[in-house]
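Researcher: Next entry: 2-amino-4-hydroxy-6-hydroxymethyldihydropteridine pyrophosphokinase (Candidatus Muproteobacteria bacterium RBG_16_65_34).
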Amino acid sequence: MSADAASFVTVYIGLGANLGNPSEQVRLGMTALAALAPTRGLRCSALYRSAPVGPVRDQPDFVNAVCALQTSLTAEALMRALIEIERRHGRVRDAGKGGPRSLDLDLLLYGQEVIRSPQLTVPHPRLHERAFVLAPLTELDPELTIPGRGRAADLLAACVGQRVEKLES
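Model: Predicted structure:
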C-alpha cells in the first residue's frame, strides 16, 4: 500500500537534550522528524527548559519540546526510526536511565491507542506526571486527552513544583 493510500495517525513525539547545545540539538531533532517518511503535517511546540527528573539529578538542565505529526508508520516502525535519529545525533542508549542525553526522542502518543509490548509502551508510561512533557503537549492541543489518564491540561495542573520555563514561541 502506498503512503497516499495508507491511513495516517496523529502522533506526539517528545524531544529533549542537555548535552552540547541542547536547543540546537532539539531543533535538529525537529528537522529530522520533518524529513521522516511517510509523515506529514509536522507541528512543534516552543522550547522549554526543565530540571532533570529521575535518578540522575546532578546534570545540566534539559531543553524539551513536543512535535505532532501524522504518519502511516506503525508504532513499532516509528519507534525504530526515532531510535535511528537519536543514534545519528550521538545518543548512546546504554548510558543509563535518566542520564545526560545529546538527543532523546520519545513516542508519547500514537493516536488514542494503548500499546503494551516488550519493545514499546504507549502512552509513554510517565508522561502524565511530567510537566516538561505536558506543557508543550497542551500548547499544541489544549484539549488533548491522554488515554487512561484524562485531559493533559488537568494533568499539567497536578504537576505542582516542577520547574518548566518556556524559552521561545
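Model: Note for the record: The domain at 9-166 is CATH 3.30.70.560 (Alpha-Beta Plaits).
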